[in-house]
Amino acid sequence: MDKHLTSANLGDNEWNGSRRYTAEYADILSVERYWKEGVLYFKFDVPPKVLELTLRAFYEDSEGESMQAKINIMQHYSPSKKYISVRTNSADVEVGEFAVFHVKTNFILQRFQYMVLAKGLLLFADEHIVESPVPTTTTFTIPIDTNMAPGFTLLVYHVTLHAELVADSVFVPVTGFNGFEITLVVNQGKDHTKKTAQAVMTAKAGAFMGINSVRSTAYFMQAGNDINRSRVTESFYAFENFTRAEPKVKWRSRQGLLPDEVSYFSRMSYGKNSYETLTFSGVVIFTDAYLPIRKLTDSCHEKKGYKPCFSEGCFLSTKMCDGYNDCADWSDESDCPLQDDDQYEYRILRMSRSDELYDTAGNDWSWKEMNADFGGEEFFTMDMPAVADEWYFTGFTLSRIRGFTTINTPIAFSSTRPFMMHIEGPTMCRRGEQIGLRLLLLNNEPYEMFVVLTLHTSPQYKFVHVEEGGIVTSYGARLSGGDHQHLVYLPAGAQQHVDMPIAPVVEQGDISVTISAMTQVGRIELVHNITVLGEGAMVNKHTAVYLDLKNKALVLQYLDIYVEESPIVPYQSWRRYVYGSTSGYITITGDIIGPAFPAVPLTTGVVLGREIKGTDGRIFELAVNVWTLHYLRLTNQLKWDITKQVLEEVNVIFGQVMKRFDRRGWFKNWDNSQPSVWLTSWAIRIFKHASFQDWENFFYIEPQIITRSIEWILQFQTELGSFEETTWYHNPLDATMQGKFSTRFNDSLVYRNITLTAHILITIHEVMQMVQGSTRTDAAKASIKAVRYLEHQLSSMTDPYEIAITAYALTLCDSIEKEFAFSLLHSKRLEVADGLQYWSRVPVPGNTIRYENQRPFICPRDYQTDDSVAVEATSYALMVNLMRDGVTVLSEKIVQWLTSVRMGSSAFISTVDTVIALQALTEYAFRARLKDITDLAITLELPSTAGFRETVHIDNETFSDLQMFEVPNVWGHLNVISKGSGQAVVQMDINFGVDYEGFRELAIIETFNLEVKEFYSSFRNKSFITIQSCFRWLLEDPPMSGLSVLELELPTGYNLLESEAERLVRSGVHPTLRDARIIEGKTFWFFEHIMQNWTCFNHTVRRWYPVANISLVRQVQLYETHAKENFIMILVNSTPLYTLNICEVCGSYQCPYCPYYSQTAPFSASKFITVVLLITSQILKTFRQFT
């Protein structure tokens, strides 16, 4: 590099007039460091008496490309002209060394004070004696400790005789990592099949040792996916109190072959006065000394929206910290907040893209950790994933004495095996279907291979034969058991696709298909699991029985099983159900909640048996997990191991809820929907329930979230005190929150919204403790207005749901009208058999009792009109009774009714009613306190199954444990014999498939019309199916539905990417379609509401896996999210798919007209390999017989 190409100039200023000073590099060492580091170092002397300085740097390379930069330097402000400065010549300071500092003053002082600060902490403070009668430079040293890494700030200050505080600071980087050398070796020579690898690592005895690897695709991106020294260093620097960018230089590899390297430099204080020097150092100032701050000109205050520059001039306040210099002294860009990483979007984009390149399931196979024993050498054995990819290993150690250390260069490693086999296929199918499992064989060696594929024998499945010429039928294909072998020839470096056809022969259940491949280099065995479901449209019948032995010694219950022994109906062409489709199970739990945590976490699929997307669905999942934890806590059953697991999942669910939170305080249900008052109130109420001091270290909700939401909700309170929904929701998301018109005494109509007002009043009362600032006062005033409004409307209420939620809100707020609300609530109660009491808009019949041989058989329950509203209203009534009178006979009757209307083992009807019921039952369980006295023996008998007699013991140790039993023969009835003391819940679920319209599940009142048509592609053997769904709402009041879900079953082997479904939603194919969810075998389409006019939309599914003899009948359902009793179920006939045989879908290697027809090995194959393979097969066969 020529000398004239790089220079630094001291610009003009008032002191030197037109003179210019040029400073060039001091010696050749600076140039050598430039070629090595890319950083050029300059030295220059500051002219005396200078007030302002401008540094300009120019660079020009050999190709004529040039760059320039400029920095302005101003004199530190001190009205007494007394200054103190600190500097250091120590570069690349390491732990265990000493850093040398020079403190210079222009006045006489006897001592000065200093502080050492790092990562926002004060590490050390002391004072130093100055032994000089004149102004001088004082030198002292500080030892470097590990706590100072990766850098520290030395703050020096002194109070003069005139009480003026002068200060200066310097930032010093510390090389605190790699205090000792470590080695990492990855050895693959011990296993030539490359199924395992061994890593050897050396470190200091007692140190923590960790290794991990990333794929080469992710490593080359250098997007922060791996652990390296620069990434750890920058993470530590995030603790520093920098208000500007860190003084650093970063080197990035253009090809991504090396990790980023970063180097930090010493930095002097950039405070314009002592006050800023102290502030920028991260200290809080408490002093009575004089802190000089230059008074800026007041001429800018006359200009609206302008601020003064430090030296002279003004600038627009909106241009503060905008990256452009509007002041000559750059003061408009001073003291700006630290800017985000300039590579942030790049890194996020790169990291998210890397997820598309591989499955993340086995990505942590190489993460190993342990503590080094004496000697410091450890061996790690790793099971390698069956993927052909390149990996980069990194290793690090963490020692109490030596700190953090990493290896210098990542180690490249290949997981490519000599021979590989992959298997894929559907994981679910229907009884009688034939499946083609797709095998992919890869020869990664430079020589040919023979592969013997073996489908191993099993009583769960059989092999599907294709006759000569590709002749095969869909439902009459020839099947055979035993081992089935097939020989495949693989040329060097080639791959082969083989379809292995199987037919499950079990009625229902899980099967495991075992396929092995043997070559001259080894043997691979893979297992593919498939769940076999029954044929037909599945119908579920649920029965729940409450066993109350608090004052009885013996209780007998008889539960009727809905299914008959035989599906045959004499002289009819239809049948009661499909053969082999029946199944049933019985669950027993103590107390009245049901199974506490059958799975972690509790999701909509686990609790309700269906999928729900959107904010409302995530809030439901958050609520059921939290209230189940509260139930266990209040009944002294909480175990911290399960609590930690649940709270980890709750954090994830909470993040999904906050995805649609706006900083103004509102929530919305979908990405493309509008904010909702009801949803926002419902969300923060559940947040308050989830916020509990015992687990704040695991799950915490910032009170500011609730405060902002309350601020936003209060905007929708009317002058009368009621609350109203936003203008976008004339029909709210939850139909129970719908306002109504009422007639006054003068026949005038007035609109009132009692339920939404009571709902928000409950929320405000419950979250009040978490509301901060003046918003808390506003919320208290709004609560009083809402109470007055509900008190005023109370006398005119007739709707039991309005009365129930209002009575709960007024009781919660201790209203003066709470007794009147309770008496009004009590007058609206309804009763069924045995005096069970509930609240509902319409009578809800209890379970049908069928008498045979003088025994009352309890029949399964069907959905009834306004089921969900009745459960929610009764739950509010139960909480009112508990708050007012505690546990009484009335509350026990209410609990028994709630148990009897369950439609699932862990749920009631829908989402909101399940949460409110769970809250009410938790309160009841807490007050009843029956855990300590529970000692039950429950005996189950199934007369239809000879010898079936199971006895379950429930005591305080097994109070909430789930006891589950399968029903072997699904017909007849169940005898329940319970003895002892306490209470329990027995529930039975019966499932069966139907293929006749007359036996499909029907709603009490028709609320929807639904039509579904399928259009098959005329090419590629019906590989594409376009499904047209048309529907409408039938009721006049309300004029449209609430949140609704269209649930469609797909033929086995067909699928739709969720990204494609979401793209279809965004295209506006339907005006109220908001989101979609895809799981194997089903698609779910979520609508904001369904209108009274017919609307349709189409979506196309594609064949992913070859499946023949597909089930003839599937079901489609349309229902309301918050009211499952409003539903319609129809059957879809798929005869064109039922007639497809295994060759028409290309599901077998035996089909001669398919692209992957597997013939015998060509004659060009090596005879030697053939002989070797036959000998190897005989040896393995003999070995198996011997073992």
TrEMBL record:
Keywords: Disulfide bond. InterPro entries: A-macroglobulin_rcpt-bd, A-macroglobulin_rcpt-bd_sf, A2M/Complement_sys, A2M_N_BRD, Alpha-macroglobulin_TED, Ig-like_fold, LDL_receptor-like_sf, LDrepeatLR_classA_rpt. GO terms for molecular function: endopeptidase inhibitor activity. Residues 364-455 form the Alpha-2-macroglobulin domain. It holds the Pfam family A2M_recep. PROSITE patterns: LDLRA_2 (PS50068). Residues 1041-1132 form the Alpha-macroglobulin receptor-binding domain. Residues 84-221 form the Alpha-2-macroglobulin bait region domain. Disulfide bonds join 309-327, 321-336. GO terms for cellular component: extracellular space. PANTHER family: CD109 ANTIGEN, MACROGLOBULIN / COMPLEMENT. This is CD109 antigen. The lineage of its organism: Eukaryota, Metazoa, Ecdysozoa, Arthropoda, Hexapoda.
